């Protein structure tokens, strides 16, 4: 429910819907790359592609909207920002309140070792660890669910030592991706997918076999 999200954030980040409004957080799993992105790129090869992943996600979420012709469905993507440059929604907070993934933050560590350093939090999924992404929100403004019960996210990084290690890895060594494997995972990105996301955006087209014209 939108109210779960709004209840733990400052008013500037509130979503402008009644508290009982139904919302879904959309995640992409490791298989998205082969099952969604590559087929999308092959199909759209002759059209203008500026950001393959964003356009792929947009394409699939617009297809979800088509499944509900009688409903108003609002979509907010993870990359959208307000004129104030703030994000339109805080993806990790949304995933946490929806019970999708646990958002580990500095406040989850009792003996904080970082002093005055800025420490960013990170979501961990009980099945995919850090090998997933939060892509957007689907909101159904005309559907109110006052009796929906909130499910807590799975606290899969439960020890103090592991939480410190997770936040250390994510904040100071994120490039090596080790934070993603903080727990035993069921599935991770393929080598091809790792290479794709490790490549600067302007050079990713080549990896997908897109020509300069397609860009």
Automatic annotation (TrEMBL):
Annotated CDD domains: MMACHC-like
Its primary localisation, in coarse terms, equals cytoplasm
Which cofactor(s) are needed, names only? FAD; FMN
Instruction: Report whether Endoplasmic reticulum shows up as a keyword of the record.
Output: no
Q: Name one GO molecular function term.
A: cobalamin binding
Q: What GO cellular-component annotations does this UniProt entry give?
A: cytoplasm
- Keywords for this entry? Cobalamin, Cobalt, Cytoplasm, FAD, Flavoprotein, FMN, NADP, Oxidoreductase
Q: What is its EC number?
A: 1.16.1.6, 2.5.1.151
GO BP annotations, alphabetical order: cobalamin metabolic process
Q: Which InterPro entries match?
A: MMACHC (IPR032037)
UniProt-recorded name of the protein: Cyanocobalamin reductase / alkylcobalamin dealkylase
Q: Which organism is it from?
A: Stercorarius parasiticus
């Amino acid at each position: 429910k939108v109210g779960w999200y709004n209840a733990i954030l400052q008013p500037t980040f509130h979503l402008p819907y009644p508290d009982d409004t139904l919302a879904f957080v959309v995640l992409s799993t490791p298989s998205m790359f082969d099952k969604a992105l590559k087929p999308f790129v092959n199909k759209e090869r002759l059209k203008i592609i500026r950001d393959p992943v964003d356009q792929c996600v947009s394409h699939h979420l617009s297809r979800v909207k088509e499944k509900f012709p009688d409903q108003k469905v609002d979509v907010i993507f993870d990359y959208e920002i307000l004129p104030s440059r703030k994000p339109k929604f805080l993806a990790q907070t949304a995933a946490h309140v929806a019970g999708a993934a646990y958002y580990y933050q500095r406040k989850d560590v009792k003996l904080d070792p970082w002093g005055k350093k800025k420490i960013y939090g990170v979501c961990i999924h009980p099945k995919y660890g850090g090998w997933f992404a939060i892509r957007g929100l689907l909101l159904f403004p005309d559907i109110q669910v006052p009796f929906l019960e909130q499910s807590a996210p799975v606290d899969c990084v439960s020890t103090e030592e592991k939480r410190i290690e997770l936040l250390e890895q994510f904040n100071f060594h994120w490039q090596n991706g080790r934070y993603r494997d903080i727990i035993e995972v069921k599935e991770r990105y393929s080598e091809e997918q790792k290479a794709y996301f490790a490549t600067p955006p302007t050079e990713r087209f080549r990896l997908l076999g897109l020509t300069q014209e397609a860009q």
